[in-house]
Structures are given as C-alpha cells and as structure tokens.
Amino acid sequence: MRRMKFFQSVQFRFVMIYLLLILVAMQVIGAYFVRELQDQLEKNFKTAITNSVNLLEYNVREAMLKYTNDDQTKLESDIQGMLLDFVRGSNDFEDVLVVDNKLKIIGTSDVDNQGIVGQVSTNKMIKNTINSGNGENKIFMGKNPKRQIWVDVTPITSKGEVIGAIYLATDIESVYEQVDSITSIFITGTLLAMIITAILGILLSRTITKPITDMKRQAFAMARGNYTRKVKVYGMDEIGQLAESFNALTKRVQEAQAMTEGERRKLSSVLSYMTDGVIATDRRGKVILINTPAEKMLKMAHESANGKPIIDVLGVSEDYSFDDLMELDELTMDRSTFDVPYILRANLSVIQRETGFVNGIIAVLHDITDQEKVDQERRDFVSNVSHELRTPLTSMHSYLEALSDGAWRDEEIAPRFLEVTQSETERMIRLVNDLLKLSRMDSGRTNLDKNFVNFNDFFNHIIDRFEMMKKDSITFKRHFTREPVIIEIDEDKIMQVMDNIISNANKYSPDGGRITFFLRKREDEIQVSISDEGIGIPEEDLTKVFDRFFRVDKARSREMGGTGLGLAIARDVITAHGGEIWAERNRGKGTTISFTLPYNDLPEDDWE
C-alpha cells in the first residue's frame, strides 16, 4: 500500500477548509464592522463640529448686527477674539474664516495670516453658500498629502437674508487613524483565533480520519482476499455506524464470494452437460473454453482446441477473420460429406464491458442438419404444389369454356356444373395465392399494402414517438411544408424505413446534438430528409451505406447494436414505392439521409 503524504490526506483538507471558512467569516464580519465603525466615527466627528459652529454662528451674527459699517474695526476685533476662543485648546481646526455677504474676510483664526482680513475671498464654496444660502461641506487632501481635511461652510442669516458665512477647515484624519488602530487590533485577534482553530481542527480531524484510515486498510485487505479482518468501532456516531456497516459489508462480500464460486461450479457443470456446444474466446480470438458437446460437434479434443484461434476451430479461416465473426450474429457451416449431410449453426455474441472494451466472443453451436432438411422439404413442397395445382386449374378453366360455348343451355347440368366449378376454382386460387405469398416471403418478395395518408401527421407521429424515447441532451427540429400532403403508401413499410433512419441518427448523435427533419413538397414527388450531427459518413462510402451488412465504423456500429441491414431494407422499400434514397455529408458535421416518394394532387372529396 503506497504511503500517503500529509498534504494529500483528508485530515489536511479538513483543517484547511475549516480555516478557510473561519477566515471568510472573519473577513466578512471585519469588513462590515470597519465600514460601520468608520461611518459612525465620521458622523460623530461632524456632529460635534457642527454643534460648535452653530454656537459660533450665533455669536458672529449678533456681533455683525450690533456694529455698523462705521464700527468695522471694532467688529473685526470682536470676531477675531471669538475665533481664537473657538479654536483654543483643539488641534483639529486648521483654519476658521468669517466672511460678510460681499465676500470680504472679516476674521481668521490663523494668527500668522492676519493679513488676509479685509480682502475678498475667492473660495468657490463660500461664493456658493453666500449666493444660495445653503451650507456646503467636502473632504480634501491637506497640505500634508497623508492627511485629509473636512471643509464646512455655514451661512450666517438674519431675517431670511444671508449676511455672511463661516468657513471651517478641520483635520479629520484622526478619525481614520482610530479606524486603522481598531482594524489592526481586529486582525491580530483574527490571527490568534485562526492559530487556536487550526490546533483544535487537527485534534478534531484525527477523531474522524482515524476510523477512515482503519477502513482503508480493511479495503486493501479485502482486495487481497482477506475477509477475517474487522474495523474497530470507536463510538456509535455516524463514523461508528459506518464502521459497523463496513464490517457487515465484509461479511456480505465473503458470502457473495463463496456464492460466486458455487455458481461458477454450477455453470461449469451446466456447460459440461448441456446439449448445445459452447465455445468462448479471449479478446484476441483464442479459445479459452469449449464444452463436451462442442468437442463432439467439431470432432476435436479439448486439448487440441484450447489456445487455438476460433476461426481455425470452426474451420472458417479461409472465409472469415476474427473481426468478421464479431460483426455476425450467426454463422452457418456446411460440413456435409458426399453422402452424409451435416450442417452446424453458430450463434455469436460479443463479450463487451460497459466501457465498450471487447473481451471476446461466445459461440453457441447447434446441429441444424434436420432443421435444414425440413426447411428444404417445405420449400420443395410449396414449389411442387404450386406446379401441380396448375393442371386442375386448367381443367376447370376448360369446363368454363365449355359452358361458355353452349353447355349452359342444359338446365340440369349447367347450374350444378357452374356451382362446383366456381367453388373449386375459388378455393384453388386462394390456395395458390397463399402458397405464392409464402414463397415470396422465403425469397424476400412482398406486396405493398398502400393506403392514402396525410404524410404531415404520419411523419409527426413517428417523430413524437422517438422524441419520448430520445436522450434529454439531443434536440429535434422540424421543417415541414405547411399545406397537407396526401400520399398513397404502405404505412407499415414506410414507418419501418423512417424508424431505421431516425434510430441511426439518434444513436450516432453526440450529447448536445440536434436532429433536423425536413418535408418538402414538389410538383410530382415529396422529399423527406433527416439530418444529424453525428460522426458522419466519409465521402467515398456515401454510395455504399445502402449495401447489406456495410458499416462505416465497424467498432462503433457493433457498440450501438447495428446489423448493417437497416438502410438496405430502406432502399428496397423506397424502390418498391417508386422513389429514390441517398446519403449526403453535411457541411459542418453529420449526415443527411433523404428519400423521395411519388406524389399526385388529389381533390379534397377524393381524400374524404
């Protein structure tokens, strides 16, 4: 048993998944917590500053209303004192300005920049506040690029008129520094929690993986045929119940193994005493099993047949290869001598796995000498009887001619003569017709039983039937002529043709493929086309696909269960209807099978 590395174990995966889940949870919680914390701190900071500005705005307004233009110096002095008192004791305020309604600066908190008092402010936020009467606030980067400044402009109003504004620039970076500090504490706590969680996860995973490791060892022991080992049950939880189930499975497998061995012995006995001969081969066609009846039928000893190619054992090496045998359902071998008939039939079945891999074939041999003799006698009987019946029929015909020449005038003879002759003639003709039908069946000749049908409904009915049985991954698409098409056909035989074509398209279409149906109406015929997106037919094989037993891809046809006769039967039926059938390669992929049927327009009354 190959030793597994720790990083490949379930224990490692369990701990990693456990840590990743905690990490994701902490990330989500942390992102939400930091965002909400930052918003709340910003809100509290701005609220505190706003409350202070409201008090300052009240005092400035009273001072501006108290002094007139003649007392401008006194006004600027009072406002300067208010601003210095306002910023005293706080390092957050960068600058505080008071501007009148003419944008003239009448006060500043910056003691080093008193020269701007009396100048006109060009700040856009101050202009907008004076003009609109609405305050504005924004966050800007300060002179130090790493620190952010919150600027708030508040209008000074009296009796609904704007008489000035207060410009306040505050350092808000302290809020973000608090957020960063709290975030660092949160990250440190998360790392500590993950370390503790990893340790606990390793301890927890061991309690789960240890019983699984025991069951793995038990599985390897079972693979080597050792069913005595048992898995230790550590508790009655789900893992413990799994261990008990594994022990029960071991017992069942041991019983099944014993049962299989018993069945193998029974099968060996059946093969030895059955009357039919059985031959089995490996994937290379070498005989690995032959029972006693097969030895007798082939007149070959067990030692001589084992290990030899089956085509040599059956004596068909000159006509067939092993690949040919895998494509046949049955094979007839004539081993008759000059005076003793001896005919064997081998029913062939391919041994194939679900994956399509061929393990070999099984041939079941039957002595059909008597059956072939009976069949030949039956065929001779039909032929001889048909020949012999011509004489009495000719005689009856002569009686009718005699009656026609004047014997019908005899009132005593004519009625009886006519009645007997007519009865016997009809009986003989019916018998001859029945015998001829049987002969046609043996020779492959059949009559068409045509009826008028609405081909649109007929075609749709066949497609609907296949649509219920197709795979979900294959889609059907129909392109039909809208006007009804009334045509005279043998429904059973045309249905057989379309069943063969649609079945092939369905079998060879890949997952996600589409089968398209076309019905076109022409002047004197209709054309039916069935197109698939399967493996396609090579250009050089398009004219050969209608030959009997011809296959484009022998291995795939064998896997799909095809016989190679479907399109050959279709050609015979379409030809019997007076139509044509052909195959074409699609431009993209797949094949289109098309055929035509003669068509004549009928009046609606005739159809009814």
Short key terms for the protein model shown above:
single chain; 608 residues; alpha+beta; five-stranded antiparallel beta sheet; 16 helices; 17 strands; 19% strand; elongated
Radius of gyration: 51 Å
Kindly report the average pLDDT value: 77
Helix content: 40-55%
User: What distance separates the N and C termini?
Assistant: 80 Å
How large is the share of residues in beta strands? 15-25%
Given the helix and strand composition, which structural class is it? alpha+beta
How many helix segments?
Answer: 16
Largest sheet: 5 strands, antiparallel
Low-confidence stretches: 437-442, 557-563
Strand sequence of the main sheet, in spatial order?
A: 2-1-5-4-3
Total strands: the figure is 17
Tell me, briefly, the overall form: elongated
Walk me through what this model shows.
51% of the residues lie in helices and 19% in strands. The longest helix is centred in the first third of the chain and has 57 residues, at 10-66. Strand 1 and strand 2 (105-108) form a beta hairpin. The two termini are 80 Å apart. Residues 437-442 and 557-563 have low confidence and may be disordered. Strands 2-1-5-4-3 form a five-stranded antiparallel sheet. Strands 7-6-10-9-8 form a five-stranded antiparallel sheet. Strands 12-14-15-17-16 form a five-stranded mixed sheet. It is an alpha+beta fold and 608 residues long. The protein has 16 helices and 17 strands.
